Amino acid sequence: MSDRKPPSDAAAEMDGLLAALASDRAATLDAARPAAVAKQRKRAGMTARERIAHLVDPGSFREVGQLAREADAAPGERPADGVVAGGAMIEGRPAVVLAQDFMTMGGSSGELGGRKLHMAVRRSIREGAPLVMLLDGGGHRIQIGQSSRRYAPSTTTFQEFARLSGWAPMAAAMLGAGFAAPTNFAGLADFISMVRGQSTMGLAGPALVKAGTGEDIDKFELGGAQAQVDRNGIADLGVEDEAAALDSLKRFLSYLPSNARAPLPMTAAPAEDPARAEALRGLVPANTRKAYDVRRVIDLVMDEGSVFEVKPTYAKNAVTSLARLAGRPVGVIANQAMSLGGMLTGPACDKVAHFVALCDAFGLPLVYFIDVPGFSIGSPAEKAQLGRRSAKLIYELGHATVPRVSVVLRKGYGLGYVAMAGGRSFEADASLAWPTAEICAMSIEGAVNVVNARRFAEMAAAGEDPEPERARLIAQMRAEVTPFGGAESFGLDDMIDPADTRPRIIEALERAPARRDLAMPPKIRSICPI
Amino acid sequence: MSEIELESEVAGVVLSVTASAGATVAEGDEIMVIESMKMEIPVLATGPGTLASLAVEEGEAVSEGQVLARIRP
Which ranges of A313-420 would DSSP assign to H, the alpha helix? Predict the structure, then answer.
Protein backbone atom coordinates (compact mmCIF):
# COMPACT_ATOMS: atom_id res chain seq x y z
CA MET A 1 0.00 0.00 0.00
CA SER A 2 1.22 3.43 -0.91
CA ASP A 3 0.49 5.15 2.36
CA ARG A 4 2.50 2.64 4.42
CA LYS A 5 5.14 4.44 6.47
CA PRO A 6 8.51 3.03 7.40
CA PRO A 7 8.49 1.11 10.69
CA SER A 8 10.59 3.67 12.48
CA ASP A 9 7.95 6.40 11.97
CA ALA A 10 5.19 4.07 13.16
CA ALA A 11 7.13 3.24 16.29
CA ALA A 12 7.68 6.90 17.03
CA GLU A 13 4.00 7.65 16.55
CA MET A 14 3.10 4.76 18.77
CA ASP A 15 5.46 6.03 21.47
CA GLY A 16 3.60 9.30 21.45
CA LEU A 17 0.23 7.59 21.65
CA LEU A 18 1.42 5.32 24.45
CA ALA A 19 2.68 8.31 26.39
CA ALA A 20 -0.75 9.94 26.02
CA LEU A 21 -2.41 6.71 27.12
CA ALA A 22 -0.13 6.39 30.13
CA SER A 23 -0.87 9.97 31.08
CA ASP A 24 -4.67 9.49 30.79
CA ARG A 25 -4.40 6.31 32.79
CA ALA A 26 -2.22 7.86 35.48
CA ALA A 27 -4.73 10.72 35.86
CA THR A 28 -7.30 8.23 37.20
CA LEU A 29 -5.03 6.90 39.97
CA ASP A 30 -4.89 8.04 43.58
CA ALA A 31 -1.36 9.39 43.14
CA ALA A 32 -2.72 12.02 40.75
CA ARG A 33 -5.43 13.09 43.20
CA PRO A 34 -3.64 14.07 46.43
CA ALA A 35 -6.25 16.59 47.57
CA ALA A 36 -9.12 14.15 47.08
CA VAL A 37 -7.18 11.39 48.81
CA ALA A 38 -6.43 13.66 51.79
CA LYS A 39 -10.15 14.40 52.08
CA GLN A 40 -11.03 10.71 51.84
CA ARG A 41 -8.59 9.87 54.66
CA LYS A 42 -10.55 12.14 56.97
CA ARG A 43 -13.81 10.26 56.46
CA ALA A 44 -12.64 6.70 55.83
CA GLY A 45 -9.57 4.50 55.82
CA MET A 46 -8.98 3.65 52.19
CA THR A 47 -9.68 4.89 48.69
CA ALA A 48 -11.73 2.79 46.25
CA ARG A 49 -8.57 1.54 44.56
CA GLU A 50 -6.90 0.72 47.88
CA ARG A 51 -9.98 -1.25 48.90
CA ILE A 52 -9.80 -3.32 45.73
CA ALA A 53 -6.06 -3.85 46.25
CA HIS A 54 -6.72 -5.11 49.78
CA LEU A 55 -9.47 -7.46 48.58
CA VAL A 56 -7.95 -9.14 45.56
CA ASP A 57 -4.86 -11.26 44.91
CA PRO A 58 -1.86 -8.98 44.27
CA GLY A 59 -1.68 -7.76 40.70
CA SER A 60 -4.80 -9.62 39.63
CA PHE A 61 -7.16 -6.66 39.11
CA ARG A 62 -7.90 -6.10 35.43
CA GLU A 63 -9.89 -2.91 35.28
CA VAL A 64 -12.60 -2.42 32.71
CA GLY A 65 -13.38 1.14 31.69
CA GLN A 66 -10.57 2.83 33.56
CA LEU A 67 -10.44 5.50 30.86
CA ALA A 68 -14.19 6.07 30.78
CA ARG A 69 -15.01 9.72 31.22
CA GLU A 70 -17.90 11.84 30.16
CA ALA A 71 -17.67 14.14 27.16
CA ASP A 72 -17.49 17.26 29.30
CA ALA A 73 -14.79 15.88 31.63
CA ALA A 74 -11.08 16.50 31.09
CA PRO A 75 -8.65 13.62 31.73
CA GLY A 76 -8.46 13.15 35.49
CA GLU A 77 -11.76 14.93 36.04
CA ARG A 78 -14.40 12.58 37.49
CA PRO A 79 -12.00 9.69 36.81
CA ALA A 80 -13.52 6.37 35.77
CA ASP A 81 -16.84 8.18 36.23
CA GLY A 82 -16.97 7.22 39.90
CA VAL A 83 -17.13 3.45 39.50
CA VAL A 84 -13.97 1.34 39.50
CA ALA A 85 -14.81 -2.10 38.10
CA GLY A 86 -13.21 -5.15 36.58
CA GLY A 87 -12.18 -8.74 36.95
CA ALA A 88 -9.81 -10.04 39.62
CA MET A 89 -8.79 -13.15 41.49
CA ILE A 90 -9.77 -13.60 45.13
CA GLU A 91 -7.81 -16.33 46.89
CA GLY A 92 -7.04 -17.91 43.55
CA ARG A 93 -10.55 -17.82 42.10
CA PRO A 94 -12.10 -15.37 39.61
CA ALA A 95 -14.45 -12.64 40.80
CA VAL A 96 -15.97 -9.46 39.42
CA VAL A 97 -15.27 -6.43 41.59
CA LEU A 98 -16.81 -3.01 41.61
CA ALA A 99 -16.05 -0.13 43.93
CA GLN A 100 -17.80 3.20 44.17
CA ASP A 101 -15.27 6.03 44.29
CA PHE A 102 -16.50 8.53 46.88
CA MET A 103 -13.76 10.92 45.76
CA THR A 104 -15.61 11.36 42.46
CA MET A 105 -18.72 13.42 43.14
CA GLY A 106 -19.45 11.55 46.36
CA GLY A 107 -19.48 8.18 44.64
CA SER A 108 -22.55 9.07 42.57
CA SER A 109 -22.95 7.45 39.17
CA GLY A 110 -22.94 9.33 35.95
CA GLU A 111 -24.31 7.63 32.87
CA LEU A 112 -21.02 5.81 32.28
CA GLY A 113 -20.70 4.80 35.93
CA GLY A 114 -24.19 3.34 35.71
CA ARG A 115 -23.26 1.40 32.58
CA LYS A 116 -20.13 0.05 34.31
CA LEU A 117 -22.22 -1.19 37.18
CA HIS A 118 -24.58 -2.86 34.72
CA MET A 119 -21.60 -4.42 32.94
CA ALA A 120 -20.24 -5.80 36.21
CA VAL A 121 -23.50 -7.58 37.05
CA ARG A 122 -23.82 -8.94 33.50
CA ARG A 123 -20.24 -10.11 33.54
CA SER A 124 -20.70 -11.89 36.84
CA ILE A 125 -23.63 -13.78 35.28
CA ARG A 126 -21.70 -14.58 32.09
CA GLU A 127 -18.56 -15.75 33.84
CA GLY A 128 -20.37 -17.48 36.70
CA ALA A 129 -18.07 -15.66 39.13
CA PRO A 130 -18.96 -13.90 42.39
CA LEU A 131 -19.87 -10.21 42.31
CA VAL A 132 -18.16 -8.23 45.05
CA MET A 133 -19.43 -4.71 45.65
CA LEU A 134 -17.48 -2.16 47.70
CA LEU A 135 -20.10 0.49 48.29
CA ASP A 136 -19.52 4.03 49.46
CA GLY A 137 -21.39 6.62 47.51
CA GLY A 138 -24.69 7.47 45.96
CA GLY A 139 -26.85 6.75 42.95
CA HIS A 140 -27.73 8.94 40.05
CA ARG A 141 -26.20 12.36 40.07
CA ILE A 142 -29.12 14.64 40.80
CA GLN A 143 -28.61 16.61 37.60
CA ILE A 144 -29.08 13.38 35.60
CA GLY A 145 -31.73 11.70 37.72
CA GLN A 146 -34.03 14.70 37.85
CA SER A 147 -34.71 14.62 34.14
CA SER A 148 -37.70 12.57 32.97
CA ARG A 149 -36.16 12.21 29.54
CA ARG A 150 -33.09 10.55 31.03
CA TYR A 151 -34.68 8.69 33.93
CA ALA A 152 -37.76 7.22 32.21
CA PRO A 153 -36.00 4.43 30.25
CA SER A 154 -34.26 3.18 33.43
CA THR A 155 -31.91 0.23 32.88
CA THR A 156 -32.18 -3.51 33.32
CA THR A 157 -29.53 -3.48 36.07
CA PHE A 158 -31.93 -4.57 38.80
CA GLN A 159 -33.40 -7.26 36.57
CA GLU A 160 -29.83 -8.49 36.14
CA PHE A 161 -29.35 -8.53 39.92
CA ALA A 162 -32.39 -10.79 40.19
CA ARG A 163 -30.99 -13.06 37.46
CA LEU A 164 -27.67 -13.25 39.27
CA SER A 165 -29.24 -14.19 42.62
CA GLY A 166 -28.53 -17.84 43.34
CA TRP A 167 -26.25 -18.22 40.31
CA ALA A 168 -23.02 -16.64 41.56
CA PRO A 169 -22.49 -15.36 45.09
CA MET A 170 -23.01 -11.65 45.69
CA ALA A 171 -21.20 -10.01 48.58
CA ALA A 172 -21.19 -6.34 49.56
CA ALA A 173 -19.18 -4.23 51.96
CA MET A 174 -20.83 -1.00 53.08
CA LEU A 175 -17.81 1.22 53.68
CA GLY A 176 -19.21 4.66 54.37
CA ALA A 177 -22.06 6.41 52.62
CA GLY A 178 -24.61 3.66 52.02
CA PHE A 179 -28.05 5.25 52.04
CA ALA A 180 -30.23 4.88 48.95
CA ALA A 181 -28.50 3.49 45.82
CA PRO A 182 -25.76 1.46 47.58
CA THR A 183 -28.46 -0.14 49.72
CA ASN A 184 -30.50 -0.86 46.58
CA PHE A 185 -27.45 -2.46 44.94
CA ALA A 186 -26.86 -4.56 48.06
CA GLY A 187 -30.56 -5.41 48.30
CA LEU A 188 -30.16 -8.84 46.74
CA ALA A 189 -26.68 -9.52 48.14
CA ASP A 190 -26.09 -12.82 49.90
CA PHE A 191 -23.82 -11.24 52.49
CA ILE A 192 -23.31 -7.67 53.67
CA SER A 193 -20.60 -6.40 55.98
CA MET A 194 -20.59 -2.96 57.69
CA VAL A 195 -17.91 -0.99 59.53
CA ARG A 196 -19.05 0.09 62.99
CA GLY A 197 -19.02 3.84 63.45
CA GLN A 198 -18.26 4.46 59.77
CA SER A 199 -20.84 2.78 57.53
CA THR A 200 -24.48 3.53 57.00
CA MET A 201 -27.16 1.90 54.92
CA GLY A 202 -30.87 2.31 54.44
CA LEU A 203 -33.43 3.42 51.88
CA ALA A 204 -32.91 7.13 52.52
CA GLY A 205 -30.50 9.19 54.59
CA PRO A 206 -31.33 11.70 57.33
CA ALA A 207 -31.71 14.71 55.00
CA LEU A 208 -34.34 13.03 52.82
CA VAL A 209 -36.04 11.53 55.87
CA LYS A 210 -36.22 14.96 57.51
CA ALA A 211 -37.62 16.52 54.37
CA GLY A 212 -40.09 13.73 53.72
CA THR A 213 -41.39 12.85 57.16
CA GLY A 214 -40.06 15.47 59.56
CA GLU A 215 -38.21 12.80 61.54
CA ASP A 216 -34.99 14.22 62.91
CA ILE A 217 -32.49 11.42 63.27
CA ASP A 218 -28.73 10.98 63.26
CA LYS A 219 -27.34 8.95 60.34
CA PHE A 220 -25.88 6.23 62.56
CA GLU A 221 -29.01 6.02 64.68
CA LEU A 222 -30.97 5.62 61.45
CA GLY A 223 -28.67 3.35 59.49
CA GLY A 224 -25.41 2.58 61.31
CA ALA A 225 -24.20 -0.95 62.00
CA GLN A 226 -25.90 -1.10 65.38
CA ALA A 227 -29.23 -0.40 63.69
CA GLN A 228 -28.87 -2.37 60.46
CA VAL A 229 -26.73 -5.29 61.65
CA ASP A 230 -27.64 -5.77 65.31
CA ARG A 231 -31.25 -4.56 65.47
CA ASN A 232 -32.73 -4.88 61.98
CA GLY A 233 -30.63 -7.68 60.54
CA ILE A 234 -30.52 -6.36 56.98
CA ALA A 235 -26.72 -6.64 57.03
CA ASP A 236 -24.89 -9.71 58.27
CA LEU A 237 -21.83 -8.55 60.13
CA GLY A 238 -20.54 -5.44 61.90
CA VAL A 239 -16.75 -5.14 62.04
CA GLU A 240 -14.25 -2.66 63.44
CA ASP A 241 -12.53 -1.37 60.30
CA GLU A 242 -12.47 -1.48 56.51
CA ALA A 243 -9.78 -4.14 56.31
CA ALA A 244 -11.92 -6.41 58.50
CA ALA A 245 -14.96 -5.73 56.31
CA LEU A 246 -13.06 -6.67 53.15
CA ASP A 247 -11.55 -9.73 54.86
CA SER A 248 -15.04 -10.84 55.93
CA LEU A 249 -16.17 -10.89 52.27
CA LYS A 250 -13.19 -13.10 51.40
CA ARG A 251 -13.99 -15.36 54.31
CA PHE A 252 -17.64 -15.60 53.25
CA LEU A 253 -16.73 -16.42 49.65
CA SER A 254 -14.19 -19.04 50.74
CA TYR A 255 -17.05 -21.41 51.67
CA LEU A 256 -18.93 -21.03 48.40
CA PRO A 257 -18.38 -22.38 44.90
CA SER A 258 -17.89 -19.81 42.12
CA ASN A 259 -21.42 -20.49 40.96
CA ALA A 260 -24.33 -22.84 41.53
CA ARG A 261 -22.98 -25.46 39.09
CA ALA A 262 -19.34 -25.33 40.22
CA PRO A 263 -17.91 -27.83 42.72
CA LEU A 264 -17.70 -26.96 46.42
CA PRO A 265 -14.34 -25.47 47.45
CA MET A 266 -12.99 -28.39 49.47
CA THR A 267 -9.94 -28.10 51.72
CA ALA A 268 -7.81 -30.80 53.34
CA ALA A 269 -9.47 -32.60 56.24
CA PRO A 270 -7.76 -31.87 59.55
CA ALA A 271 -6.48 -34.66 61.81
CA GLU A 272 -9.13 -35.95 64.23
CA ASP A 273 -8.76 -34.84 67.85
CA PRO A 274 -10.32 -37.25 70.38
CA ALA A 275 -10.15 -34.63 73.14
CA ARG A 276 -12.42 -32.30 71.19
CA ALA A 277 -14.87 -35.12 70.54
CA GLU A 278 -15.02 -36.12 74.19
CA ALA A 279 -15.53 -32.54 75.29
CA LEU A 280 -18.92 -32.68 73.55
CA ARG A 281 -20.21 -34.97 76.31
CA GLY A 282 -19.97 -32.23 78.90
CA LEU A 283 -21.72 -29.39 77.10
CA VAL A 284 -25.47 -29.91 77.18
CA PRO A 285 -27.17 -30.23 80.58
CA ALA A 286 -30.00 -32.78 80.64
CA ASN A 287 -31.98 -30.37 82.81
CA THR A 288 -33.98 -28.45 80.21
CA ARG A 289 -34.11 -25.40 82.48
CA LYS A 290 -30.38 -24.89 82.12
CA ALA A 291 -29.02 -22.79 79.30
CA TYR A 292 -25.68 -23.41 77.54
CA ASP A 293 -23.89 -21.94 74.54
CA VAL A 294 -24.64 -24.03 71.45
CA ARG A 295 -21.77 -22.32 69.61
CA ARG A 296 -19.39 -24.48 71.67
CA VAL A 297 -21.12 -27.58 70.32
CA ILE A 298 -20.76 -26.25 66.77
CA ASP A 299 -17.09 -25.35 67.30
CA LEU A 300 -16.26 -28.84 68.55
CA VAL A 301 -18.16 -30.74 65.87
CA MET A 302 -16.82 -28.69 62.95
CA ASP A 303 -13.21 -28.53 61.75
CA GLU A 304 -11.23 -26.51 64.28
CA GLY A 305 -11.23 -22.79 63.48
CA SER A 306 -13.54 -23.25 60.48
CA VAL A 307 -16.73 -21.69 61.89
CA PHE A 308 -17.84 -18.34 60.44
CA GLU A 309 -21.03 -17.12 62.01
CA VAL A 310 -23.44 -15.16 59.80
CA LYS A 311 -25.62 -12.57 61.58
CA PRO A 312 -24.02 -13.30 64.99
CA THR A 313 -25.61 -10.25 66.61
CA TYR A 314 -29.13 -10.51 65.14
CA ALA A 315 -31.80 -12.99 66.31
CA LYS A 316 -29.22 -14.67 68.52
CA ASN A 317 -31.78 -17.32 69.48
CA ALA A 318 -30.93 -19.01 66.18
CA VAL A 319 -27.31 -19.53 65.12
CA THR A 320 -26.40 -19.70 61.41
CA SER A 321 -22.78 -20.49 60.59
CA LEU A 322 -20.74 -21.45 57.60
CA ALA A 323 -18.19 -24.07 58.56
CA ARG A 324 -16.23 -27.06 57.31
CA LEU A 325 -16.55 -30.74 58.10
CA ALA A 326 -13.51 -32.76 57.02
CA GLY A 327 -12.80 -29.93 54.60
CA ARG A 328 -16.30 -29.85 53.10
CA PRO A 329 -18.19 -26.53 53.42
CA VAL A 330 -21.52 -26.87 55.26
CA GLY A 331 -24.21 -24.58 56.63
CA VAL A 332 -25.01 -25.01 60.32
CA ILE A 333 -28.35 -24.05 61.84
CA ALA A 334 -28.78 -24.29 65.60
CA ASN A 335 -31.12 -23.13 68.34
CA GLN A 336 -29.33 -21.07 70.97
CA ALA A 337 -30.62 -21.93 74.46
CA MET A 338 -28.70 -18.93 75.85
CA SER A 339 -30.97 -16.52 74.03
CA LEU A 340 -34.76 -16.63 74.52
CA GLY A 341 -34.29 -20.29 75.40
CA GLY A 342 -33.70 -20.98 71.71
CA MET A 343 -37.29 -20.14 70.84
CA LEU A 344 -38.01 -19.48 67.15
CA THR A 345 -39.15 -15.90 66.61
CA GLY A 346 -40.01 -13.93 63.45
CA PRO A 347 -36.47 -12.54 63.07
CA ALA A 348 -35.00 -16.02 63.68
CA CYS A 349 -37.27 -17.47 60.97
CA ASP A 350 -36.18 -14.83 58.46
CA LYS A 351 -32.53 -15.36 59.35
CA VAL A 352 -32.68 -19.14 59.07
CA ALA A 353 -34.85 -19.18 55.92
CA HIS A 354 -32.43 -16.87 54.09
CA PHE A 355 -29.47 -18.96 55.24
CA VAL A 356 -31.07 -22.21 54.07
CA ALA A 357 -31.76 -20.64 50.67
CA LEU A 358 -28.11 -19.52 50.44
CA CYS A 359 -26.78 -22.97 51.30
CA ASP A 360 -29.20 -24.70 48.96
CA ALA A 361 -28.40 -22.34 46.08
CA PHE A 362 -24.69 -23.11 46.35
CA GLY A 363 -24.81 -26.78 47.27
CA LEU A 364 -23.76 -26.63 50.93
CA PRO A 365 -25.19 -29.49 53.03
CA LEU A 366 -27.28 -28.40 56.02
CA VAL A 367 -26.42 -29.50 59.55
CA TYR A 368 -29.12 -28.85 62.16
CA PHE A 369 -28.53 -28.89 65.91
CA ILE A 370 -31.94 -28.97 67.54
CA ASP A 371 -32.84 -27.71 71.00
CA VAL A 372 -36.05 -25.87 70.30
CA PRO A 373 -38.83 -25.15 72.78
CA GLY A 374 -41.05 -24.13 69.85
CA PHE A 375 -42.10 -20.92 68.20
CA SER A 376 -42.70 -17.79 70.18
CA ILE A 377 -46.37 -17.29 71.14
CA GLY A 378 -48.66 -14.48 72.21
CA SER A 379 -49.67 -11.20 70.61
CA PRO A 380 -46.09 -10.03 69.84
CA ALA A 381 -45.59 -13.26 67.87
CA GLU A 382 -48.85 -12.80 65.98
CA LYS A 383 -47.98 -9.18 65.26
CA ALA A 384 -44.65 -10.43 63.87
CA GLN A 385 -46.68 -12.59 61.43
CA LEU A 386 -45.15 -15.72 62.89
CA GLY A 387 -47.90 -17.95 61.53
CA ARG A 388 -46.54 -17.19 58.08
CA ARG A 389 -42.90 -16.47 58.89
CA SER A 390 -42.60 -19.90 60.50
CA ALA A 391 -43.83 -21.37 57.21
CA LYS A 392 -40.81 -19.87 55.44
CA LEU A 393 -38.67 -22.44 57.22
CA ILE A 394 -40.90 -25.20 55.87
CA TYR A 395 -40.90 -23.57 52.45
CA GLU A 396 -37.12 -23.36 52.20
CA LEU A 397 -36.44 -26.82 53.60
CA GLY A 398 -39.17 -28.23 51.37
CA HIS A 399 -37.40 -26.87 48.31
CA ALA A 400 -33.83 -27.59 49.38
CA THR A 401 -32.12 -30.31 47.36
CA VAL A 402 -28.88 -30.41 49.35
CA PRO A 403 -28.06 -33.13 51.90
CA ARG A 404 -29.29 -32.43 55.43
CA VAL A 405 -28.51 -33.98 58.79
CA SER A 406 -30.33 -33.29 62.04
CA VAL A 407 -29.03 -33.86 65.55
CA VAL A 408 -31.45 -33.39 68.45
CA LEU A 409 -29.37 -32.11 71.35
CA ARG A 410 -32.24 -31.63 73.76
CA LYS A 411 -35.73 -30.21 73.16
CA GLY A 412 -37.47 -31.04 69.92
CA TYR A 413 -40.92 -29.56 70.41
CA GLY A 414 -43.79 -29.07 68.03
CA LEU A 415 -43.51 -27.49 64.60
CA GLY A 416 -40.13 -26.10 65.63
CA TYR A 417 -38.77 -29.67 65.57
CA VAL A 418 -40.19 -30.16 62.07
CA ALA A 419 -38.91 -26.77 60.83
CA MET A 420 -35.45 -27.78 62.07
CA ALA A 421 -35.53 -30.93 59.90
CA GLY A 422 -36.08 -33.18 62.92
CA GLY A 423 -36.88 -36.91 62.56
CA ARG A 424 -38.32 -37.88 59.18
CA SER A 425 -39.81 -34.43 58.45
CA PHE A 426 -37.57 -33.57 55.51
CA GLU A 427 -36.05 -36.98 54.85
CA ALA A 428 -32.74 -36.17 56.51
CA ASP A 429 -29.72 -38.11 55.28
CA ALA A 430 -29.10 -38.83 58.94
CA SER A 431 -31.53 -38.15 61.76
CA LEU A 432 -29.71 -38.44 65.06
CA ALA A 433 -30.27 -37.60 68.72
CA TRP A 434 -28.16 -37.30 71.84
CA PRO A 435 -29.30 -39.12 74.99
CA THR A 436 -30.41 -35.74 76.36
CA ALA A 437 -33.12 -35.46 73.67
CA GLU A 438 -36.72 -34.74 74.61
CA ILE A 439 -38.96 -34.93 71.55
CA CYS A 440 -42.69 -34.25 71.66
CA ALA A 441 -45.47 -32.03 70.34
CA MET A 442 -45.27 -29.35 73.01
CA SER A 443 -43.52 -28.53 76.26
CA ILE A 444 -44.26 -31.14 78.91
CA GLU A 445 -45.21 -28.58 81.54
CA GLY A 446 -47.45 -26.82 79.03
CA ALA A 447 -49.14 -30.05 77.99
CA VAL A 448 -49.84 -31.13 81.58
CA ASN A 449 -51.32 -27.70 82.36
CA VAL A 450 -53.52 -27.61 79.27
CA VAL A 451 -54.85 -31.15 79.66
CA ASN A 452 -55.49 -30.83 83.40
CA ALA A 453 -56.53 -27.19 83.61
CA ARG A 454 -60.04 -27.93 84.88
CA ARG A 455 -58.86 -30.56 87.33
CA PHE A 456 -56.18 -28.30 88.83
CA ALA A 457 -58.75 -25.49 89.12
CA GLU A 458 -61.19 -27.80 90.90
CA MET A 459 -58.46 -28.97 93.31
CA ALA A 460 -57.54 -25.38 94.06
CA ALA A 461 -61.21 -24.48 94.59
CA ALA A 462 -61.57 -27.40 97.02
CA GLY A 463 -58.63 -26.04 99.00
CA GLU A 464 -56.31 -28.79 97.78
CA ASP A 465 -52.80 -27.92 96.56
CA PRO A 466 -52.57 -29.05 92.90
CA GLU A 467 -48.77 -28.79 92.80
CA PRO A 468 -47.85 -32.34 93.92
CA GLU A 469 -50.26 -33.79 91.36
CA ARG A 470 -48.94 -31.48 88.70
CA ALA A 471 -45.37 -32.54 89.49
CA ARG A 472 -46.38 -36.23 89.39
CA LEU A 473 -48.05 -35.85 86.00
CA ILE A 474 -45.07 -33.93 84.59
CA ALA A 475 -42.69 -36.69 85.74
CA GLN A 476 -44.99 -39.33 84.27
CA MET A 477 -45.17 -37.58 80.92
CA ARG A 478 -41.43 -36.91 80.88
CA ALA A 479 -40.84 -40.67 81.20
CA GLU A 480 -42.68 -41.11 77.89
CA VAL A 481 -40.57 -38.47 76.21
CA THR A 482 -37.16 -40.02 75.79
CA PRO A 483 -34.75 -40.30 72.89
CA PHE A 484 -35.02 -44.05 73.36
CA GLY A 485 -38.67 -43.77 72.36
CA GLY A 486 -37.73 -41.84 69.23
CA ALA A 487 -35.13 -44.41 68.23
CA GLU A 488 -37.35 -47.38 69.18
CA SER A 489 -40.21 -46.16 66.99
CA PHE A 490 -37.74 -45.73 64.10
CA GLY A 491 -38.52 -42.00 64.22
CA LEU A 492 -34.78 -41.41 64.36
CA ASP A 493 -31.96 -43.25 62.64
CA ASP A 494 -30.00 -43.55 65.83
CA MET A 495 -29.24 -42.24 69.26
CA ILE A 496 -25.57 -41.47 69.56
CA ASP A 497 -22.79 -40.67 71.99
CA PRO A 498 -22.12 -36.92 71.59
CA ALA A 499 -18.46 -37.79 71.02
CA ASP A 500 -19.48 -39.63 67.83
CA THR A 501 -21.40 -36.68 66.37
CA ARG A 502 -18.65 -35.47 64.08
CA PRO A 503 -17.76 -38.80 62.44
CA ARG A 504 -21.43 -39.70 62.05
CA ILE A 505 -22.24 -36.46 60.22
CA ILE A 506 -19.10 -36.68 58.05
CA GLU A 507 -20.02 -40.25 57.12
CA ALA A 508 -23.61 -39.29 56.24
CA LEU A 509 -22.45 -36.41 54.05
CA GLU A 510 -19.95 -38.61 52.24
CA ARG A 511 -22.74 -41.05 51.35
CA ALA A 512 -25.47 -38.53 50.50
CA PRO A 513 -25.91 -37.49 46.85
CA ALA A 514 -24.93 -33.84 46.31
CA ARG A 515 -28.50 -33.10 45.14
CA ARG A 516 -31.76 -34.96 45.54
CA ASP A 517 -34.78 -35.12 43.25
CA LEU A 518 -37.75 -33.58 45.04
CA ALA A 519 -40.25 -35.20 42.65
CA MET A 520 -42.28 -31.98 42.55
CA PRO A 521 -45.61 -32.05 40.75
CA PRO A 522 -45.47 -30.35 37.32
CA LYS A 523 -45.93 -26.83 38.65
CA ILE A 524 -44.22 -23.70 37.34
CA ARG A 525 -43.04 -22.36 40.69
CA SER A 526 -43.84 -22.37 44.37
CA ILE A 527 -45.11 -19.35 46.28
CA CYS A 528 -43.26 -18.10 49.33
CA PRO A 529 -45.71 -17.72 52.24
CA ILE A 530 -44.63 -14.16 53.00
CA MET B 1 -17.40 6.71 77.66
CA SER B 2 -21.02 6.37 78.59
CA GLU B 3 -22.34 3.36 80.43
CA ILE B 4 -23.53 0.32 78.54
CA GLU B 5 -27.05 -0.73 79.43
CA LEU B 6 -27.83 -4.43 79.67
CA GLU B 7 -31.42 -4.98 78.63
CA SER B 8 -33.58 -8.01 79.18
CA GLU B 9 -34.21 -9.70 75.87
CA VAL B 10 -37.26 -11.39 77.29
CA ALA B 11 -40.08 -10.86 79.79
CA GLY B 12 -39.55 -12.94 82.93
CA VAL B 13 -38.54 -12.93 86.57
CA VAL B 14 -35.09 -12.27 88.03
CA LEU B 15 -34.18 -15.66 89.46
CA SER B 16 -30.81 -14.71 90.92
CA VAL B 17 -28.29 -11.89 90.75
CA THR B 18 -24.81 -13.34 90.46
CA ALA B 19 -22.57 -10.26 90.25
CA SER B 20 -22.46 -7.36 92.68
CA ALA B 21 -22.39 -3.66 91.90
CA GLY B 22 -18.87 -2.30 91.69
CA ALA B 23 -17.43 -5.62 90.55
CA THR B 24 -15.03 -5.80 87.64
CA VAL B 25 -16.53 -7.85 84.82
CA ALA B 26 -15.20 -9.36 81.63
CA GLU B 27 -17.18 -9.88 78.45
CA GLY B 28 -19.37 -12.95 78.87
CA ASP B 29 -19.43 -12.88 82.68
CA GLU B 30 -22.79 -13.81 84.15
CA ILE B 31 -24.50 -10.84 85.80
CA MET B 32 -27.84 -12.42 86.65
CA VAL B 33 -30.25 -15.15 85.61
CA ILE B 34 -33.75 -14.44 84.30
CA GLU B 35 -36.38 -17.16 84.39
CA SER B 36 -38.63 -17.14 81.36
CA MET B 37 -40.35 -19.79 79.24
CA LYS B 38 -39.43 -22.32 81.94
CA MET B 39 -35.77 -21.65 81.22
CA GLU B 40 -33.01 -20.09 83.22
CA ILE B 41 -31.56 -17.53 80.87
CA PRO B 42 -28.23 -15.99 81.87
CA VAL B 43 -27.65 -12.28 81.33
CA LEU B 44 -24.02 -11.79 80.35
CA ALA B 45 -21.76 -8.76 80.29
CA THR B 46 -21.54 -7.48 76.71
CA GLY B 47 -18.09 -6.05 77.29
CA PRO B 48 -15.44 -5.56 79.97
CA GLY B 49 -15.75 -2.88 82.65
CA THR B 50 -17.14 -2.15 86.06
CA LEU B 51 -20.65 -3.16 86.98
CA ALA B 52 -21.81 0.41 87.69
CA SER B 53 -25.29 -0.44 88.91
CA LEU B 54 -27.93 -3.12 89.13
CA ALA B 55 -31.37 -1.89 88.16
CA VAL B 56 -33.37 -4.88 89.39
CA GLU B 57 -33.36 -7.29 92.28
CA GLU B 58 -34.10 -10.97 92.80
CA GLY B 59 -37.72 -11.93 92.40
CA GLU B 60 -38.56 -8.84 90.35
CA ALA B 61 -40.64 -9.25 87.20
CA VAL B 62 -38.97 -7.67 84.17
CA SER B 63 -40.31 -6.82 80.75
CA GLU B 64 -38.63 -7.17 77.38
CA GLY B 65 -36.16 -4.34 76.81
CA GLN B 66 -36.07 -3.33 80.49
CA VAL B 67 -32.64 -2.17 81.70
CA LEU B 68 -31.21 -4.73 84.12
CA ALA B 69 -27.76 -3.36 84.83
CA ARG B 70 -25.23 -0.80 83.64
CA ILE B 71 -21.58 -1.40 82.85
CA ARG B 72 -18.99 1.36 82.79
CA PRO B 73 -16.35 0.36 80.18
Answer: 346-361, 379-383, 386-399, 414-419
- B interface test, pick of A293, A294, A340, A444 with most B CB neighbours within 10 Å: A340
What range defines the domain where residue B49 resides?
A: 4-72
pLDDT tens digits, one per residue of A268-313 = 999 999 999 999 999 999 988 889 999 999 999 999 999 999 999 9
Enter the ipTM: 0.75
Cβ–Cβ gap B9/A340 under 8 Å: yes
* CATH code, domain carrying B30: 2.40.50.100
Nearest to A496 by CA among A438, A437, A417: A437
- Chain A: closest CA distance from residue B54 (Å): 20
Q: Which spans in A146-224 are helix H?
A: 148-151, 157-164, 181-185, 206-213, 219-223
In chain A the domains, ranked by start, together with CATH numbers, are: 31-254 (3.90.226.10), 274-437+482-511 (3.90.226.10)
Model pLDDT for residues A422-445, shown as the tens digit of each residue? 999 999 999 999 999 998 888 888
Number of separate domains in chain B: 1
Q: What is the pLDDT of residue A111?
A: 87
- pTM listed for this prediction: 0.92
Closest CA of chain A from B38, distance in Å: 6
Q: Which residues of B touch A (CB under 8 A)?
A: 9-10, 36-42, 44, 64
